[in-house]
Amino acid sequence: MVGVGVAPLGCSEPDICELQKMYLLPSVRGQGLAKKLALMALEYAREQGFK
């Protein structure tokens, strides 16, 4: 199981986003899942016009 959350940044440029936290159950850690999810999030953000 993975937990994530998103919220607008109050003092940020409109084309800047930030991944702040990612939670994974201990049973799925160490498999590279967080890295894969973070890279997917970066790719998606860029596709949406974020830097």
UniProtKB/TrEMBL annotation:
Pfam family, one: Acetyltransf_1
Alphabetized CDD domains for the sequence: NAT_SF
Domain N-acetyltransferase: 1-51
GO molecular function annotations of the record: acyltransferase activity, transferring groups other than amino-acyl groups
Keyword terms of this UniProt record: Transferase
Gene3D superfamilies linked: 3.40.630.30
InterPro entries: Acyl_CoA_acyltransferase (IPR016181), GNAT_dom (IPR000182), GNAT_YJDJ (IPR031165)
Keyword Transferase: yes
Protein name as it appears in the record: N-acetyltransferase
UniProt organism field: Salmonella enterica subsp. houtenae serovar 45:g,z51:-
